[in-house]
Amino acid sequence: MWDPQRYLARAAERARPFHDLISRIGATAPGTVVDLGCGPGNLTVTLAERWPDAKVIGIDSSTAMIAAPTRRRSRRRRRSSWRVATRARPRVARTTRATPARR
Questions:
Q1: Whether pTM exceeds 0.85
Q2: If exposure means fewest CB atoms within 10 Å of the residue's CB, which of 15, 24, 31, 103 is most exposed?
Q3: How many CB atoms lie within 10 A of CB 19?
Q4: Is residue 59 within 8 Å of residue 92, measured between CB atoms?
Q5: What is the pLDDT of residues 46-79, one digit of tens each?
């Protein structure tokens, strides 16, 4: 079972590759942003901050992770939602594939 507190203990190390990847996404105003394997949601919050008008969906297979305090804090955003994946391919409303930024 995943433990959100233990997971967050190494948040800085886990965040580096996330931010490197997100910086390469060229989308400026996506309608929907999905974070698959969102964990406790601490990085999902940064997606909501980068694209404030987007509907942000955090999906994780762990109920404990979805119930984490970080998720509750960001839930204040009306356009954020959180789901536990109950099957290998969770259904998500229309999504747009992100385009890598040009260098």
A1: no
A2: 103
A3: 10
A4: yes
A5: 898 899 899 998 898 888 888 875 656 555 566 7
The stretches of 1-103 forming alpha helices (DSSP H) are 4-8, 11-22, 42-50, 63-66, 69-74
User: Given the structure tokens 């931010």, which residue do they identify?
Assistant: 19
DSSP type of residue 79: T
d(CA 15, CA 23): 12
CB atoms within 10 A of CB 24: 12
Q: What own/partner pairs with CB < 8 Å and gap ≥ 24 does 83-86 have?
A: 83/57, 83/58, 83/59, 84/59, 84/60, 85/36, 85/59, 85/60, 85/61
Q: How far apart are CA 72 and CA 26, in angstroms?
A: 28
Q: What does the domain layout of the chain look like in residue ranges?
A: 30-87
